[in-house]
């Protein structure tokens, strides 16, 4: 690499960091905790759970493409039936780590998603790429967006309409609640909400168990292809470039296997960069994920939205600039403290927490930036931000930057 190329790359990384509210440290500048080859992984195999969703891509492809072997481990992907199963197996130690909902890990730490367990978030696996689907029955009644839904619900008894998400403290619940509340619909008082595993969403809408759901892909696209639903909103329309799934594990596992944790993050981090490198890699990823061992569906159901090509099922088509991303020069994968804190504010908003916790201290405890930095150094050419908070603007015009979480949690007109 020429000196000119290095200089351009360095400048671009610093510009990216400035845009996010803080400078970036280049791996060569970091005080690396680990030197390659000096200490091997404690485990040769790492069992990583996943739910059949498009955003499990980096876990699966790390194994399929052999990125794991480069760092001295073998990732064994384990297909799970529900987020509750992921939770139970992760806590029991049957799984070493998992592709998991951000809010599930935080909920376990707080004792509101099951028995309290000290947890760790090793990295973010993706941004964006979820959606809220409504049934075609609603479309026939003239409901094409949230405002129309509000008018329809206003004329019915509370709880007449049922909506589904995937886990009480998870991301899909928070996107659904936020979207409904932004339209003036109280997600607990005006409608009924239920928990349904992702692979069962389409079937349950088909038989009329709910009129809407929030879930990851490919199940929103599947609802369109099956002619039973349409995309009313993408999760990125609620929060552009929002955090979604993370690489979660027990804190004890990280303490017992620090070198394995570093190797696991490094392998998935390098895979994430590979997926985002070009559209051909995304197409290959979609083809692999469609296989029986993973999502067991048609590759066409995955490829379009992986490439940012959206069709809402009612005739609207667009190229989404905030489609699912896995790396984006390290901006996606870094475990931002403010991201974790946001989920705590929503847990507080909806009464899942009965008091304001020490938001920042909890995020610092769970989000293992130390492990991530070591892995980024091992991979090389991964930008690591000096500022561990980022600023985001959500659909209601509110700005979230982690500066005053208690006030933010209390600021919403609709809450519980």
Automatic annotation (TrEMBL):
InterPro entries: NrtA/CpmA_ABC-bd_dom (IPR044527), TAT_signal (IPR006311). PROSITE patterns: TAT (PS51318). Keywords: Cell inner membrane, Cell membrane, Membrane, Signal, Transport. Coiled coil: none annotated. It is found in: Endomembrane system. Gene3D superfamilies: Periplasmic binding protein-like II. The keyword Cell inner membrane applies. It comes from the Bacteria. GO terms for cellular component: endomembrane system. Transmembrane segments: none annotated. This is ABC transporter substrate-binding protein.
